[in-house]
Amino acid sequence: MKKIFLFIIEFLFIFIFLSYATADKIFSHIPYKSAQWKSKTTITGKDKPITIEQIIFYKDDKMRTEAVMQDPSTGQKQNTITIIDDKFIYSYDKDKKQGTKISIESNSLLNPEKQNIQISKCKKSAIKKGNENINGIQCSKYEYNCKINGEIFTITEWRNKDGFPIKTISKYRDIVTTVETSDLKTNIGLSDSLFKPESDVKFMDAENMMQQMGKKMQMLEKQNQKNKSKELNQQNKENDIEEEDNEHKDIDINEMMKKMIER
Fold first, then answer.
1. Per-residue pLDDT tens for 49-76?
2. C-alpha span between 71 and 73 (Å, rounded)
3. Which terminus of the chain faces fewer neighbouring Cβ atoms within 10 Å, N or C?
4. How many CB atoms lie within 10 A of CB 223?
5. Residues 82-94: what's their mean pLDDT?
6. By CB neighbour count within 10 A (0-12 exposed, 13-18 middle, 19+ buried), where does 89 fall?
7. Burial bucket for residue 18 (CB in 10 Å: 0-12, 13-18, 19+)
8. pTM for the complete prediction?
Protein backbone atom coordinates (compact mmCIF):
# COMPACT_ATOMS: atom_id res chain seq x y z
CA MET A 1 0.00 0.00 0.00
CA LYS A 2 2.87 2.36 0.78
CA LYS A 3 4.28 1.81 -2.71
CA ILE A 4 1.01 2.98 -4.26
CA PHE A 5 0.94 6.06 -2.02
CA LEU A 6 4.53 6.99 -2.92
CA PHE A 7 3.63 6.50 -6.57
CA ILE A 8 0.73 9.00 -6.37
CA ILE A 9 2.79 12.20 -6.55
CA GLU A 10 4.77 11.02 -9.58
CA PHE A 11 1.63 9.74 -11.27
CA LEU A 12 -0.27 12.99 -10.70
CA PHE A 13 2.56 14.86 -12.42
CA ILE A 14 2.46 12.42 -15.32
CA PHE A 15 -1.31 12.57 -15.49
CA ILE A 16 -1.37 16.37 -15.64
CA PHE A 17 0.92 16.27 -18.64
CA LEU A 18 -0.93 13.39 -20.25
CA SER A 19 -4.04 15.54 -20.12
CA TYR A 20 -2.64 18.93 -21.05
CA ALA A 21 0.84 18.77 -22.58
CA THR A 22 1.88 19.16 -26.20
CA ALA A 23 5.26 19.56 -27.82
CA ASP A 24 5.17 23.37 -27.87
CA LYS A 25 3.99 24.42 -24.42
CA ILE A 26 3.13 22.48 -21.30
CA PHE A 27 -0.50 23.63 -21.18
CA SER A 28 -1.14 24.62 -24.77
CA HIS A 29 -3.83 21.93 -25.00
CA ILE A 30 -6.01 23.80 -22.47
CA PRO A 31 -8.43 25.79 -24.65
CA TYR A 32 -9.01 28.51 -22.04
CA LYS A 33 -7.04 31.57 -20.99
CA SER A 34 -7.99 30.84 -17.40
CA ALA A 35 -10.07 28.19 -15.66
CA GLN A 36 -10.94 26.60 -12.36
CA TRP A 37 -12.32 23.12 -11.74
CA LYS A 38 -12.63 20.31 -9.23
CA SER A 39 -11.10 16.92 -9.81
CA LYS A 40 -11.73 13.61 -8.09
CA THR A 41 -9.06 10.98 -8.58
CA THR A 42 -9.72 7.36 -7.60
CA ILE A 43 -6.86 4.86 -7.70
CA THR A 44 -7.71 1.17 -7.47
CA GLY A 45 -5.42 -1.84 -7.42
CA LYS A 46 -4.78 -4.87 -5.27
CA ASP A 47 -5.24 -2.85 -2.08
CA LYS A 48 -7.96 -0.51 -0.86
CA PRO A 49 -8.96 2.32 -3.25
CA ILE A 50 -7.33 5.71 -2.74
CA THR A 51 -9.35 8.87 -3.40
CA ILE A 52 -7.82 12.31 -3.94
CA GLU A 53 -9.90 15.47 -4.03
CA GLN A 54 -8.35 18.37 -5.97
CA ILE A 55 -9.09 21.97 -6.86
CA ILE A 56 -7.18 23.16 -9.92
CA PHE A 57 -6.54 26.74 -11.03
CA TYR A 58 -5.11 27.66 -14.44
CA LYS A 59 -4.09 31.01 -15.87
CA ASP A 60 -1.68 32.08 -18.61
CA ASP A 61 0.31 28.83 -18.75
CA LYS A 62 0.52 28.52 -14.97
CA MET A 63 -1.25 25.95 -12.81
CA ARG A 64 -2.01 25.45 -9.13
CA THR A 65 -3.33 22.16 -7.75
CA GLU A 66 -4.61 21.82 -4.19
CA ALA A 67 -4.97 18.18 -3.20
CA VAL A 68 -6.00 16.36 -0.04
CA MET A 69 -4.44 12.90 0.18
CA GLN A 70 -4.77 10.29 2.89
CA ASP A 71 -1.83 8.01 3.60
CA PRO A 72 -3.40 4.52 3.73
CA SER A 73 -0.64 3.24 6.02
CA THR A 74 -1.22 5.88 8.74
CA GLY A 75 -4.65 7.32 7.98
CA GLN A 76 -3.20 10.82 8.15
CA LYS A 77 -4.34 13.42 5.64
CA GLN A 78 -1.87 15.57 3.75
CA ASN A 79 -2.67 18.89 2.13
CA THR A 80 -0.40 19.07 -0.89
CA ILE A 81 -0.06 22.06 -3.20
CA THR A 82 1.61 21.87 -6.60
CA ILE A 83 2.41 25.02 -8.55
CA ILE A 84 3.78 25.03 -12.08
CA ASP A 85 5.00 28.31 -13.56
CA ASP A 86 7.37 29.22 -16.39
CA LYS A 87 10.47 28.33 -14.36
CA PHE A 88 9.77 25.74 -11.68
CA ILE A 89 7.50 22.94 -10.52
CA TYR A 90 6.83 23.31 -6.79
CA SER A 91 5.22 20.65 -4.60
CA TYR A 92 4.81 21.17 -0.87
CA ASP A 93 2.91 20.24 2.27
CA LYS A 94 0.69 23.20 3.14
CA ASP A 95 0.70 22.43 6.87
CA LYS A 96 4.36 21.49 7.35
CA LYS A 97 5.57 24.30 5.08
CA GLN A 98 8.08 21.99 3.42
CA GLY A 99 8.43 20.77 -0.14
CA THR A 100 10.53 20.26 -3.24
CA LYS A 101 11.04 22.15 -6.47
CA ILE A 102 12.54 21.30 -9.84
CA SER A 103 13.43 23.49 -12.79
CA ILE A 104 11.31 23.30 -15.93
CA GLU A 105 14.61 23.15 -17.83
CA SER A 106 15.93 20.22 -15.79
CA ASN A 107 17.11 17.13 -17.62
CA SER A 108 16.11 14.96 -14.67
CA LEU A 109 13.61 12.14 -15.17
CA LEU A 110 11.63 13.83 -12.40
CA ASN A 111 10.82 16.67 -14.79
CA PRO A 112 7.54 16.00 -16.65
CA GLU A 113 8.55 18.59 -19.26
CA LYS A 114 10.89 15.92 -20.66
CA GLN A 115 7.86 13.87 -21.67
CA ASN A 116 6.18 16.59 -23.77
CA ILE A 117 7.14 15.37 -27.23
CA GLN A 118 6.39 11.76 -26.36
CA ILE A 119 3.00 12.64 -24.85
CA SER A 120 2.16 14.84 -27.82
CA LYS A 121 2.72 11.85 -30.12
CA CYS A 122 0.48 9.74 -27.88
CA LYS A 123 -2.38 12.22 -28.10
CA LYS A 124 -2.06 12.43 -31.86
CA SER A 125 -2.58 8.68 -32.07
CA ALA A 126 -5.88 8.86 -30.13
CA ILE A 127 -8.77 7.14 -31.88
CA LYS A 128 -12.30 8.51 -31.53
CA LYS A 129 -14.68 5.84 -30.25
CA GLY A 130 -17.94 7.77 -30.36
CA ASN A 131 -19.88 10.26 -28.25
CA GLU A 132 -21.13 9.92 -24.68
CA ASN A 133 -22.87 12.06 -22.09
CA ILE A 134 -20.76 12.51 -18.95
CA ASN A 135 -22.56 14.18 -16.03
CA GLY A 136 -24.79 16.11 -18.38
CA ILE A 137 -21.95 17.17 -20.71
CA GLN A 138 -21.81 15.86 -24.28
CA CYS A 139 -18.32 14.44 -24.85
CA SER A 140 -16.26 12.74 -27.53
CA LYS A 141 -14.60 9.53 -26.40
CA TYR A 142 -10.95 8.89 -27.35
CA GLU A 143 -8.57 6.00 -26.67
CA TYR A 144 -4.78 5.76 -26.97
CA ASN A 145 -1.69 4.20 -25.40
CA CYS A 146 1.36 6.03 -24.12
CA LYS A 147 4.79 4.70 -23.15
CA ILE A 148 6.36 6.76 -20.35
CA ASN A 149 9.69 5.85 -18.75
CA GLY A 150 9.35 2.36 -20.19
CA GLU A 151 5.84 1.79 -18.82
CA ILE A 152 2.69 1.51 -20.94
CA PHE A 153 -0.36 3.59 -19.98
CA THR A 154 -3.70 2.82 -21.62
CA ILE A 155 -5.77 6.02 -21.70
CA THR A 156 -9.46 6.66 -22.33
CA GLU A 157 -10.60 10.30 -22.43
CA TRP A 158 -14.00 11.94 -22.66
CA ARG A 159 -13.47 15.47 -24.03
CA ASN A 160 -16.04 18.28 -24.11
CA LYS A 161 -16.77 20.37 -27.21
CA ASP A 162 -13.67 22.47 -26.50
CA GLY A 163 -11.43 19.40 -26.32
CA PHE A 164 -11.04 19.60 -22.54
CA PRO A 165 -11.02 16.23 -20.70
CA ILE A 166 -14.08 15.80 -18.46
CA LYS A 167 -13.24 12.22 -17.52
CA THR A 168 -10.12 10.12 -17.94
CA ILE A 169 -9.40 6.49 -17.13
CA SER A 170 -5.77 5.39 -17.13
CA LYS A 171 -4.57 1.80 -16.75
CA TYR A 172 -1.01 1.11 -15.63
CA ARG A 173 -0.05 -2.48 -14.77
CA ASP A 174 -2.73 -3.53 -12.25
CA ILE A 175 -3.53 0.06 -11.22
CA VAL A 176 -6.59 1.83 -12.63
CA THR A 177 -6.88 5.58 -12.13
CA THR A 178 -10.13 7.43 -12.81
CA VAL A 179 -10.20 11.23 -12.86
CA GLU A 180 -13.50 13.07 -13.04
CA THR A 181 -13.83 16.83 -13.60
CA SER A 182 -16.66 18.92 -12.18
CA ASP A 183 -17.59 22.57 -11.59
CA LEU A 184 -15.57 23.74 -14.59
CA LYS A 185 -15.47 27.55 -14.79
CA THR A 186 -13.69 29.08 -17.76
CA ASN A 187 -12.15 32.45 -18.60
CA ILE A 188 -12.52 33.78 -15.07
CA GLY A 189 -10.52 36.25 -13.00
CA LEU A 190 -7.82 34.60 -10.88
CA SER A 191 -5.26 36.36 -8.67
CA ASP A 192 -1.60 36.07 -9.69
CA SER A 193 -0.78 35.24 -6.05
CA LEU A 194 -2.37 31.80 -6.51
CA PHE A 195 0.55 30.81 -8.70
CA LYS A 196 3.27 31.80 -6.23
CA PRO A 197 4.32 29.60 -3.29
CA GLU A 198 3.98 31.10 0.19
CA SER A 199 7.15 32.89 1.28
CA ASP A 200 7.54 30.82 4.47
CA VAL A 201 7.74 27.46 2.67
CA LYS A 202 11.17 25.79 2.69
CA PHE A 203 12.03 24.04 -0.57
CA MET A 204 14.62 21.39 -1.35
CA ASP A 205 15.86 21.03 -4.92
CA ALA A 206 14.38 17.71 -6.06
CA GLU A 207 17.10 17.10 -8.63
CA ASN A 208 19.91 17.66 -6.10
CA MET A 209 18.03 15.53 -3.58
CA MET A 210 17.82 12.64 -6.05
CA GLN A 211 21.49 13.03 -6.93
CA GLN A 212 22.42 12.87 -3.24
CA MET A 213 20.23 9.82 -2.78
CA GLY A 214 21.90 8.23 -5.79
CA LYS A 215 25.36 8.88 -4.31
CA LYS A 216 24.29 7.41 -0.97
CA MET A 217 22.94 4.33 -2.73
CA GLN A 218 26.25 3.93 -4.57
CA MET A 219 28.19 4.28 -1.30
CA LEU A 220 25.97 1.70 0.38
CA GLU A 221 26.42 -0.66 -2.55
CA LYS A 222 30.21 -0.26 -2.39
CA GLN A 223 30.16 -0.85 1.37
CA ASN A 224 28.04 -3.97 0.89
CA GLN A 225 30.51 -5.24 -1.69
CA LYS A 226 33.40 -4.61 0.75
CA ASN A 227 31.56 -6.40 3.55
CA LYS A 228 30.84 -9.36 1.27
CA SER A 229 34.49 -9.44 0.22
CA LYS A 230 35.64 -9.41 3.87
CA GLU A 231 33.22 -12.19 4.76
CA LEU A 232 34.44 -14.25 1.79
CA ASN A 233 38.10 -13.71 2.75
CA GLN A 234 37.36 -14.66 6.36
CA GLN A 235 35.55 -17.78 5.22
CA ASN A 236 38.49 -18.70 2.97
CA LYS A 237 40.93 -18.24 5.88
CA GLU A 238 38.80 -20.45 8.09
CA ASN A 239 38.67 -23.08 5.37
CA ASP A 240 42.47 -22.91 4.94
CA ILE A 241 43.00 -23.35 8.69
CA GLU A 242 40.62 -26.30 8.74
CA GLU A 243 42.46 -27.91 5.81
CA GLU A 244 45.81 -27.42 7.58
CA ASP A 245 44.43 -29.03 10.74
CA ASN A 246 43.19 -31.97 8.70
CA GLU A 247 46.61 -32.32 7.06
CA HIS A 248 48.30 -32.36 10.48
CA LYS A 249 45.86 -34.98 11.69
CA ASP A 250 46.63 -37.13 8.65
CA ILE A 251 50.36 -36.80 9.32
CA ASP A 252 49.91 -37.74 12.99
CA ILE A 253 47.89 -40.83 12.09
CA ASN A 254 50.48 -41.90 9.54
CA GLU A 255 53.26 -41.51 12.10
CA MET A 256 51.35 -43.58 14.64
CA MET A 257 50.75 -46.34 12.11
CA LYS A 258 54.43 -46.37 11.17
CA LYS A 259 55.52 -46.70 14.79
CA MET A 260 53.07 -49.52 15.42
CA ILE A 261 54.45 -51.45 12.43
CA GLU A 262 58.05 -50.95 13.59
CA ARG A 263 57.11 -52.37 16.96
1. 888 889 999 999 899 999 887 766 777 7
2. 5
3. C
4. 10
5. 88
6. buried
7. buried
8. 0.69
